[in-house]
Amino acid sequence: MKLKNKIALITGAGSGIGKAIAIEMGREGAHIAINDLTADTAEATAREVEALGREALAIPADVADAAQVDHMVGQTHDRFGRIDILVNNAGVYIPQDGGFTAITDAAWQRILDVNLNGPFYCSRAVVKDMMDRKQGGKIINISSVQAEVAHFDASAYQPSKAAVVMLTRTLAVELAPYKINVNAIGPGAIASEGMGATLGAEIIEAYRKRIPWGARGYTRDIATAAAFLASEDARYITGQIVYVDGGYLSDSTPTELKSQDHPVPPDDPDPK
Ligand SMILES: NC(=O)c1ccc[n+]([C@@H]2O[C@H](COP(=O)([O-])OP(=O)(O)OC[C@H]3O[C@@H](n4cnc5c(N)ncnc54)[C@H](O)[C@@H]3O)[C@@H](O)[C@H]2O)c1
Fold first, then answer.
1. CA–CA separation, 36 vs 31, rounded Å?
2. Which residues of 162-186 are buried (b: 16+ CB within 10 A; e: fewer)?
3. Could you read off the pLDDT of 45-98 as tens digits, one per residue?
4. Whole-number Cα distances in Å, 252 to 210, 211, 258
5. CATH of the domain at 67
6. Range of the structural domain that residue 97 is part of
7. In a domain, 206, yes or no
8. pTM surpassing 0.85?
9. How far apart are CA 145 and CA 245, in angstroms?
10. What is the tally of structural domains in the chain?
11. With left for phi above 0 and alpha for psi between -120 and 50, is residue 111 left, alpha or beta?
């Protein structure tokens, strides 16, 4: 087990990618503090982690609220005594029909509050103790391929995720003397319960043609990368953005020009 007896705090772990990370880190031996907006979703994930034989603590809190974040980190310390791994996963994507000029102040603000301020508040709250303990630590931020390439109707989401990339590099440099690794994962199109589930069949098919792998990724594809980055196997990796995207960012071929000799393969079997 890569993470035996480590203590991980994972935000937004009541569904999708965050839940998969909680389960994967639990499989690898970690005990997990599971944050989500609501108690019932956090508790559902906690039960799954406990079923693996690990300890789990469900903590409902809004990561966009600094006071709630400080309280959440305090609760985790009270229960487990420390935090070895922080995963800043909670994120929102508010569809912006009508594009840039149609986005409301409230939507712009909420996206930045959750996607950027959330990782800042959580990292700040967790890092103080990590620095004092001098035992190192791991921070993993969940960004997106949309930090690098723009998609229509995501004009607030994309800047928020690009800022997470720079926050990752900034913290990596500042915290390297404390042996705290700070990395990000940039998922491509992932078939998650929340964001990933809102797409219709036609759109999913269009993505399958656009992605070199020929399929969207599974939440577990992100989770195994996160478990690796949280482990001592990734000891010397810091300040990196690992894109888990089936080749999406590497491919500039217009879909219409893709070779007909390489038809889109069927979806891979879900490893869950
Ligand atoms: N699914 C994808 O294709 C995809 C692609 C790129 C990046 N991402 C990123 O991955 C992360 C997880 O996305 P997902 O697809 O699993 O989505 P999801 O909607 O399934 O899960 C997000 C979770 O975060 C929680 N959350 C939202 N706001 C919160 C807040 N303020 N405080 C605490 N929890 C909050 C939600 O309740 C939910 O449980 C997000 O940061 C997202 O931007 C997802």
1. 16
2. bbbbebbbebbeebeebebbbbbbb
3. 999 999 999 999 999 999 999 999 999 999 999 999 999 999 999 999 988 788
4. 9, 10, 10
5. 3.40.50.720
6. 7-198+217-251
7. no
8. yes
9. 7
10. 1
11. alpha
Strands 7-10 and 85-88: parallel
Give Cβ neighbours of residue 180 (< 8 Å, ≥ 6 apart): 127, 130, 131, 136, 137, 138, 139, 171
In-domain check, residue 224: yes
- Domain presence at residue 257: no
Q: Which residues line ligand 1 (CB under 6 A)?
A: 11-12, 14-18, 35-37, 41, 62-64, 89-93, 114, 118, 142, 144, 187, 189-190, 192-196
Atom number of ligand 1 nearest to Cα 189: 3
270 assigned to some structural domain: no
Quick check: is 243 catalytic?
A: no
- Pocket probe for ligand 1: among 148, 167, 192, 244, the residue whose CB has the most ligand atoms within 8 Å is 192
